[in-house]
Write a structure and sequence with these properties.
Layout: E1 10-17, E2 26-31, H1 34-45, E3 52-60, H2 61-79, E4 86-88, E5 104-106, E6 109-123, E7 128-149, E8 152-159, H3 164-170, H4 174-195, H5 202-210, H6 213-222, H7 228-236, H8 240-292, H9 298-310, H10 316-331, H11 339-351, H12 365-375, H13 380-395, E9 403-407, H14 414-425, E10 429-433, H15 440-444, H16 457-465, E11 471-475, H17 488-496, E12 504-505, E13 512-513, E14 519-524, H18 532-536, E15 538-542, H19 548-566, E16 574-575, H20 578-588, H21 595-617, H22 629-638, H23 654-663, E17 667-668, H24 671-678, H25 687-691, E18 697-704, E19 707-719, E20 724-727, H26 732-748, E21 766-771, H27 785-797, E22 805-807, E23 810-811, E24 817-818, H28 823-832, E25 837-841, H29 853-858, E26 860-864, H30 867-874, H31 880-886
Parallel strand pairs: 1-3, 9-14, 9-15, 10-11, 11-14, 16-17, 20-21, 22-25, 25-26
Antiparallel strand pairs: 1-8, 2-7, 3-5, 3-6, 4-5, 6-7, 7-8, 12-13, 18-19, 19-21, 23-24
Helix pairs in contact: 4-5, 4-8, 6-8, 9-10, 9-11, 10-11, 12-13, 12-14, 19-20, 19-21, 20-21, 21-24, 26-27, 27-30
The structure holds adenosine-5'-diphosphate.
Length: 887
């Protein structure tokens, strides 16, 4: 035991600079200075038994001036002893030739230490010897006198720590017992805190349990870092109780400082993880971006987006949703996968017209009527219906009336009527094309979870038009179809239902949008394909197509002025006489509407524009070119260059140029020009005559989505097994009609004496082939019945049908002729094709009122009840069998 060590009265002193060795502690010192090397060699190395030396703390004199003075009296009071200070300086104490270069303070108390281990090394290159000494502190001593022995010091000392007997006595002291218990508790607490951080604390824990009380304080304090001053004060605490309480104070302070440090770290870490972490990351991000040359500032982007969102006037629930999304966006890096889609989504939210509406001006019905009249020729019934619609809106703006649906062939003005409604109401107009929409997502959008998801067409349209109360045209509503991807019609139902469209839910948008302020107008080519539920919500207004005269008027009053204007021309440059327009209508277009007519007129205007532009170059120069222009030409010429330039005399403006052009007569379209620009005529009235050259061909009238059309039916027979072949993309209904027609003809063959035609039997051993030309166009419907019968009778009787007669009507097996639809379109088509007679079912008489009287009057309309009547009318000179009968 260290306390049993007998200390010699003199000890060689090893100075320990700014450090303290406490009893019980073990230190490792490298001795390099010549004095300490000497000390080790003489006092430790050369001795057989490992010797004891004194380790005395020293302090630099420079530091001691302030600290030393404060230290010395303090020590005295603490220990209750006088604490003299030994000051050794080179000039004041030059002890035995030791030349102490610097001023040092020796502490007056030290610790006797035993060398546990010694090792000697040679330090290169000078060959100087160094020692490494491992010392264990034994007990405190105080210096009585310091003197030099060669190059090192020796001191006369007196022991300070208690002897064993004294200790045993002291350990009985109840105060000390209480104090030591308390110390152990505090020390344990510190250990448990440190245990979480340091793995090797177990040794200290073991010491706490095994060491005697008087060693505990020193060893424990030595095991953690304390300042030099504190170490000194521990050294100076000779009294056991004082030492324990001082050690306890130190341990406690250490504990507190660890706790505070922990708290601070936690707090700082917490703060870092929020704002500072974000800041740091942003800084890094910016640095990376700069490095990549990607300079646009996303911070700003997001801020701009937020500003835009704020001014979008979103309803509160949408705003909340948008805020949430924006917060997510802020946390994302631009490189992150969802970043751009999130941006696009928020942009859409900000762009949508949540509240922005075009101000509806006070609706004047007269102005609206004038507007409609000035844009559209004819269509008086349609216009009247529109005016009624507007009148109701005027009286009750939030009326939930039916949705107008314009039905008719292309180019009859459906779209332009809808845009006129918008103009009359002072609202914006947006057209949503539904043609070919088969996917419900086209209307309602894709959910954002899909890659490449988009909003539906309605939301897209609203974004485009940027007001929440436009007139929205649902174009070609009959062309939507349903398949596995859902039914667009059901989505449209929701859109058109005033009860539901207040909260229209687009899957992409994912928040409700109010469509109730939108005025919907729909267009369709045909009524039949529109799902009944949808049709139920709409009021159908039919636009059947125009007669030649109507087209002529539309062209003269509307199309030509518009086309000229679009091409920068006027009637002063180009004139298209009525006769030529008529030619265009009859020979170049055969349509129900006026779209191709407009296209052809535009072609003429383009050709004229080229002519006019060429002519402009040839503007004859005004003779009296202004004086001022002359020097300009001269100067150019003076340069030696040959100048070719047109000089427009000053004072002559564009107006005068056009005058100059005017003087050269306007271009008047004539037949050669028509042929040159539009090519040879595509249609003529001779078509029917040319096609019906042989028996077996008849002329029917059909109804297509392009309006009424003339349809030829060709039949022929050849040797075979009595089969019926049908070609020309026919649907089931029309195929059945053919079967019915053939059956009827076979059944009636004897009656109408068809078998008598020629020597051969037409029905046995012969195949019959019926073809509907324009084979690429699908055809269906029952209305070709009478045409098929005529064709077959013509074939079997070898009589040609009349080339001026077209027919339509469904037939029964018993030979009755049933009414069919689309009479108006069909009659108009016949008129268009130059047909003179039309055979119609008698029960379609009522439909004839819809046919413009001009057309009606120009045609001979024959109403029939039975197939025999049809045959009577279809052949020149009446029913063929009669002829045969005569034979
Ligand atoms: P749709 O929508 O029926 O296919 P549009 O409305 O696009 O047809 O009309 C085609 C062109 O014909 C437009 O330029 C339109 O102004 C013109 N048009 C059609 N009908 C008339 C009419 N009755 N009066 C004047 N222009 C017309």
């Amino acid at each position: 035991m260290a306390e049993l060590v007998e200390l010699p009265s003199r000890l060689a002193i090893l100075p320990f600079r700014n450090k303290v060795l406490l009893p019980g502690a073990i230190i490792r010192i490298r001795c390099t200075s010549s004095s300490s090397v000497k000390l080790v060699e003489q006092e430790l190395w050369q001795k057989e038994e490992k010797g004891i030396i004194g380790v005395l703390p020293v302090r630099d004199a420079a530091e001691s001036t302030s600290v030393g003075s404060a230290l010395s009296p303090g020590m005295g009071t603490e220990t209750g002893e006088q604490s003299p200070k030994v000051l050794v300086s080179s000039d004041s104490h030059r002890v035995d030739g030791i030349n102490q270069q610097e001023l040092i303070h020796w502490h007056k108390r030290g610790v006797a230490a035993r060398a546990l281990h010694l090792s000697r090394g040679v330090e290169k290159p000078s060959g100087r010897v160094t020692y490494i000494v491992v010392l264990e502190g034994l007990c405190r001593f105080s210096v009585q006198e310091l003197s030099a022995r060669g190059t090192y010091y020796v001191a006369r000392i007196s022991r300070l720590d208690m002897t064993r007997a004294e200790l045993e006595q002291a350990e009985q002291d109840p105060d000390l017992i209480a104090l030591s218990r308390q110390f152990k508790a505090t020390a344990m607490e510190l250990i448990s805190v440190l245990e979480q951080k340091q793995k090797n604390i177990g040794r200290t824990k073991a010491l706490l349990e095994t060491l005697p009380v008087h060693r505990l304080a020193d060893i424990f304090v030595a095991s953690f870092e304390i300042s030099f001053e504190e170490q000194l004060s521990m050294l100076d605490s000779v009294d056991l109780k004082l030492r324990l309480s001082k050690a306890m104070e130190l341990v406690d302070r250490h504990l507190q400082s660890i706790r505070v440090a922990e708290k601070i770290t936690q707090k700082v870490e917490g703060q870092l993880s929020k704002s500072q972490k974000e800041f740091l990351l942003r800084q890094q991000m910016r640095a990376i971006k700069e490095e990549l040359g990607d300079n646009d500032d996303d911070e700003d982007d997001v801020a701009t987006l937020e500003r835009k969102m704020q001014s979008a006037g979103m309803p509160p629930n949408v705003w909340k949703h948008a805020q949430r999304e924006l917060r997510r966006l802020r946390k994302m890096q631009p490189q992150q996968p969802g970043y751009s889609s999130s941006c696009v989504y928020l942009e859409l939210l900000a762009d949508l017209p949540w509240q922005k509406a075009s101000e509806e001006r006070e609706l004047s019905l007269r102005a609206a009527k004038e507007h409609l009249d000035s844009d559209h020729y004819g269509l008086s019934k349609v216009k009247q219906r529109i005016i009624e619609y507007l009148a109701v809106r005027k009286l009750k703006p939030d009326v939930r009336g039916p949705i107008l649906c314009f039905v008719g062939p292309p180019g009859v003005g459906k779209t332009s009527l809808a845009s006129s409604i918008a103009a009359a109401l002072g609202r914006k107009f947006v057209r949503i094309s539904l043609g070919g929409v088969k996917d419900e997502a086209d209307i309602r959008g894709h959910r954002r979870t899909y890659i490449g998801s988009m909003p539906g067409r309605l939301v897209e349209g609203l974004k485009r038009v940027a007001v929440c109360n436009p007139v929205m045209l649902l174009d070609e509503i009959d062309k939507t179809g349903s398949d596995v991807r859902g039914d667009p019609a059901s989505a449209l139902l929701e859109v058109l239902d005033p009860e539901q469209n207040k909260t229209f839910n687009d899957h992409y948008l994912n928040v409700p949008f109010d469509l109730s302020k939108v005025i919907f107008v729909a267009t369709a080519n045909r009524v039949q394909p529109i799902p009944p539920a949808l049709l139920d919500r709409m009021e159908v207004i039919e636009l059947p197509g125009y007669t030649l005269e109507e087209k002529l008027n539309i062209a003269m009053q509307h199309l030509i002025p518009r086309v000229l204007d679009q091409h920068g021309l006027s009637s002063e440059f180009l004139q298209i006489p009525e006769a030529m327009v008529k030619h265009v209508i009859q020979r170049y277009t055969r349509e129900a509407g006026v779209r191709n007519l407009e296209r052809n007129l535009a072609a003429l205007a383009r050709a004229a524009a080229v002519r006019v532009a060429e002519q402009e170059h040839a503007v004859p120069l005004n003779k009296d070119v202004h004086q001022m222009a002359a020097p300009l030409i001269d100067s150019r010429l003076a340069d030696g260059a040959e100048v070719e330039m047109e000089v427009i005399p000053l004072g002559v403006n564009n107006h005068e140029i056009s005058n100059a052009l005017k003087s050269s007569s306007p271009l008047i379209v004539d037949e050669p020009m028509l042929e040159k620009v539009l090519g040879p005529p595509r249609f003529d009235d001779r078509e029917a005559a040319e096609r019906v050259t042989t028996p077996g061909v008849s002329i029917g009238l059909v109804w297509t989505s392009f309006g009424g059309e003339v349809q030829y039916v060709e039949a022929t027979s050849m040797v075979g097994k009595g089969d019926l072949h049908l070609t020309g993309q026919l649907g089931d209904v029309i195929k059945e009609s053919a079967q019915i027609a053939l059956t009827w003809v076979r059944a009636k063959a004897a009656d109408i004496k068809l078998a008598a035609a020629g020597e051969i039997n037409l029905f046995e051993g012969r195949d019959i082939h019926i073809h509907f030309p324009a084979g690429a166009v699908p055809k269906d419907g029952p209305s070709a019945g009478v045409t098929l019968v005529s064709s077959l009778v013509s074939l079997f009787s070898q009589q040609r049908v009349r080339t001026d007669t077209a027919m339509t009507g469904e037939m029964t097996l018993r030979g009755l002729v049933l009414p069919v639809g689309g009479i108006k379109d069909k009659v108009l088509a016949a008129h268009r094709y130059g047909i003179k007679r039309v055979i119609l079912p008698e029960r379609n008489l009522k439909d004839l009122v819809e046919v413009p009287s001009a057309v009606r009057n120009s045609l001979e309309i024959v109403l029939v009840k039975r197939v025999e009547d049809v045959l009577e009318q279809a052949f020149e000179g009446g029913f063929p069998w009669r002829k045969h009968a005569k034979l």
